[in-house]
Amino acid sequence: MYDIKEEDYEGVVDQSRLSTTKESSSLQTQLPVLELLKDFMSGKTVFRNIMSILLPGVNSIVAERSSQIHGQYLENAVQLSLEIIILVLEKDLLLSDYWRPLYQPLDIILSHDHNQIVALLDSRMVGLVQLLLKSNASNSLIEDYAACLEAR
């Protein structure tokens, strides 16, 4: 899909090291794949959306493929999501050393244990976990809290 060469990301890396007050570059001048890598390596919106496509699992996708009108589109979305993950996994180690500590390799982002994060949240604020489970906001808060813990 995209083929990133060494000179493509060197400019972005060099610009990001110049100054923290100056933005490294605008979204319009960066390659879309670099923005995608940044999003994945920080566990942000695109990463969460792609994971929400993949999380239901094979059985539900197979069931929806045969029983729903949108089943074929869902299968295509899963295929494209997996291709994006493969693209990120191919390139993330190359860039993670330059972008640390804000960005981490995708395998580290994927390895977060939600149970440990829930226990840590519960220990810091009693009753928060039960409230979050009732409001169905727990997954996004757990992911955001994990990102905050990594940034420390």
Automatic annotation (TrEMBL):
InterPro entries: Nup186/Nup192/Nup205
Keywords: Nucleus, Transport
Presence of keyword Cell division: no
Subcellular compartments: Nucleus
Cellular component, GO, one term: nuclear pore
Keyword Nucleus among UniProt keywords: yes
UniProt record similarity statement: Belongs to the NUP186/NUP192/NUP205 family.
Protein name: Nuclear pore complex protein Nup205-like
